[in-house]
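call fold target=Sugar ABC transporter permease
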Amino acid sequence: MSAAPIELPRWADTALVPLVSVAAALVIAGLVVLGIGESPLEATALLLRGALGSAEGIGFTLYYTTNFIFTGLAVAVAFHAGLFNIGGEGQATIAGVFAALACLSLATLPGFLLVPLAVLAAAGGGALYGLIPGWLQATRGSHVVITTIMFNFLAATLSVYLLVEVIGKPGSMLPETKEFASHAILMPMHTLLAPLGVKLPATPLNSAFLLALAALVAVWALIFRSRLGYAIRTVGANPRAAAYAGISPARITMVAMAISGALAGGLAVNEVMGVQHRLLLDFTAGYGFVGIAVALMGRGHPVGVALAALLFGVLYQGGAELSFDKPSITRDMVVVIGGVIILFAGALDGLFRRVVASILRIGRSA
């Protein structure tokens, strides 16, 4: 007999439960650091200083955060439809191919036309690659988890073929395209803010960060303030009730997966057009999988996704700086910390919901 679900106030479910799970994960990480002979407090201070203690560190942190916002939103939209999209890596890869093709083939266009068209191409490529698994589940019963896993590998294989045989840089031994034209790339944030008198060091942070912020607002409006969003949430909560109300679960499944894929394409925009300025292999670097943890911790809400993305941005940048200052604490240790947070936010979510419920009961009885 299954246990009854734990009912919590909305604020506690969206804020307190993730906070408790992150705190517990950091305690475990602190014990690991202590076990290798280092001070957890010193390590935490170094990590935070590396991520947030300078303009350069903040730039790198927000650059990572941009990637995690896009991939976290991609997973969150699918969650609301009752779908588990773990194909963000593949969808971003195909989005990168589309963006590169647009930047290379439309290079004669002026920048004010080329850049938006390339961004739309990336979103369209990601949407198409997300739509196919959605269509397979809606019409053929193929589970979206299985198909998105398979499509990640297919996208990686396709990108290798294209970079080696079709669009690769002539004469180059590396699987990459030639560099995009200067008017086909996103403006770095330090360049964008310079005319306003804001002097920032050069970092990978670029105007894709502004697109990520816009995506947060757009997803909030879509999910919580639109008829389509209501239909998505209804299908996610109860497909049979949705069908009884006249909502097509098959159509919503395909639409939600297409939107999810388009959001994953934001990762390609940030990396391909904003940082690398060319298409190369493995530019996704696992950001798509981290997006799963970001969506879980953020409870699928754009505000929560933004905060969770910032947390992982701090871990990525602060962890890199920490490994320089403390060679005994390697980048692998930071990966372990992220893994523990993912474990606690996902698999042990029910445990921390019970902990929070107990805390609230004690608070009410006090």
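return ok
The mean pLDDT is 90. The first helix runs from residue 10 to 35.
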